[in-house]
Amino acid sequence: MNLKFIGLSILMLASALAAPAENTSYRYRVQLKDKSQTTYSLDRPQEFLSARSIERRNRQGLKIDSTDLPVCAAYIRQLESQGGKFISASKWNNTVLMQTNSEQTAQRFLINPFVESVRKVWTSPDSVPPRPADRKKEVDNKWNEQEDIYGVAADQIRMHRGDSIHKAGFRGKGIEIAVIDAGFYNVDAMKIFRHAHILGTKDFVNPQSDIYAEHNHGMKVFSCLAADAPHVMTGTAPEAGFWLLRSEDNDSEQLAEEDNWAAAVEFADSVGADIVNTSLGYFSFNDATDNYTYRELDGHTSLMSASASMAAKKGMLVVCSAGNSGASTWKKITPPADAENILTVGAIDAMGLNAPFSSVGNTTDGRVKPDVMAIGMHTAVVGTNGGTAYANGTSFAAPVFCGLAACLWQACPWLNVFELIDIIHKASDRYAYPDNIYGYGVTDIWKAFQLARKLKEENGK
């Protein structure tokens, strides 16, 4: 708080503090009751889903249902006529995110018979730091070669016998992975990504921004998957296709980021992505009244968790970091890590010991979390100069494992998402005695491949 005007009277100070900034804007999550005025039909899914998205459902025997129908455009137009600006929508949750310049506008939204509830989820920050004007100058693309073909990433791949599945010819080709993160700083200037198959980008925080000028967290996450420089660094799925999506607003911590994420994962579904990697999680916010409690780690209370749980019903695998709160007072996993039918990944070191910061489970309803563990201490990543570096966090354990899951699914396309998760559990070293720290443990991805082949023989797939 700026206290340079100490001479002001208490009354004037209180008035100044109470008044909103002149250009303050707000965003509200509007929960809708139905989709009765939709112009779309389940008989014409090609109007709102890509051919690849429809094929993924058909391959796994999943029906297209009302949750796939877009939010009613007529409802959005009505909210706009009442002073709102449309930001995004979640068809799975039947919500829309609307921006206003007045808190009173939200009261008008409630008058509509199609509106169930309205919740403020964002207030514009006081300022947003400028992005670097000459960011690419930070990249020198210098690195040192290693003896191992995997370079600095050897430990994090070989721990899971990922080298075996790679040698068998499965490096993620044909699998599409959506990476939802905070930005992919300078990915477009780094030679270590020159072979990466980037299918597209989209920013759900600020559509006008340059996604390669935003935070470097997503770049480091992406490197665990997509780096492809032999003897320097190799990602776990270097031949996969990637959608780079931004949902995290690093300039504030507000509930609207969950709406951004919900829109991003639905976009990933609509374009046909097979897997989503997200190294994001939230339990506390700028407004403490929005903070989650342990009892809300049920897989559905958080909008992100509800969306992640829904993704499995659409045939997508969501791989999520457990969170880095293990050594803090919170300790527990952070939503959406509590979602149902996803893979939540905790962090270990190269010796297989859990990282003290790695968040622990279980969920409120007793499901085992985390699911599996991967190296998240001293994880090899690409640094901001385009060379190699190391980082700590479940944020990096998740993509390390995500890429291996992509290779497994490439090798075993007959698996549906639920079978894929089950086989990964069974191929992990603590499957017989899971706990709330390691979950099912460290997965042997080659063993998972053998189990999947056996399942195919038994089921005659």
Automatic annotation (TrEMBL):
Residues 172-441 form the Peptidase S8/S53 domain. The active site is at D181, H217, S395. Residues 1-18 form the signal peptide. Pfam families: Peptidase_S8. Keywords: Hydrolase, Protease, Serine protease, Signal. PROSITE patterns: SUBTILASE, SUBTILASE_ASP, SUBTILASE_SER. The keyword Protease applies. InterPro entries: Pept_S8_subtilisin_bacteroid-2, Peptidase_S8/S53_dom, Peptidase_S8/S53_dom_sf, Peptidase_S8_Asp-AS, Peptidase_S8_Ser-AS, Peptidase_S8_subtilisin-like, Peptidase_S8_subtilisin-rel. It comes from the Bacteria. Belongs to the peptidase S8 family. This is S8 family serine peptidase. It comes from Bacteroides gallinaceum. The lineage of its organism: Bacteria, Pseudomonadati, Bacteroidota, Bacteroidia, Bacteroidales.
